[in-house]
Amino acid sequence: MIKYSIEVWIYNPIIREMLLLKVKTDQFSFWQPITGGIENGEIPEVACIREIFEETGLKTTLTKLLKIGHHTVVMNEDLSIFKTLFLMETKRKDIRISDEHVDFMWTKVKTVPDILYWQSNQETFQMVVEKLS
């Protein structure tokens, strides 16, 4: 089975930092960019705008999104996640996190790889860095 999702990296060019959100499970917590599933009938861009608002309270438009590409994560022999990746710039620093997160932080681009837990986020972040260069 293939699940379709989006992943959005938010960059603030004024402070030159990336936004990361903290997820806490029963077992552990970790930092990640905005992520979310694509609902029935949605295109990735619409899912992206919806997830940005749900997870940060930030409103955006299609013209403010830069599509980076795609990345597939094989979870197991029965499940793969096909992610469409985006980059968005904002000059706002204050956000409102959703109930699915316990914290947020803005961090320098060079420190992001040291903070990320999931290998797939490491890989997608490298794709983002190439676009920022």
UniProtKB/TrEMBL annotation:
Highest taxon in the source lineage: Bacteria
The keyword Cell inner membrane appears for this protein: no
Cited InterPro entries: NUDIX_hydrolase-like_dom_sf (IPR015797), NUDIX_hydrolase_CS (IPR020084), NUDIX_hydrolase_dom (IPR000086)
Family assignment from sequence similarity: Belongs to the Nudix hydrolase family.
A Gene Ontology molecular function term of the record: hydrolase activity
Pfam hit, one: NUDIX
Keywords: Hydrolase
Residues making up the signal peptide according to the UniProt record: none
The protein's name in its UniProt record: Nudix hydrolase domain-containing protein
Residue ranges constituting the Nudix hydrolase domain according to the UniProt record: 1-129
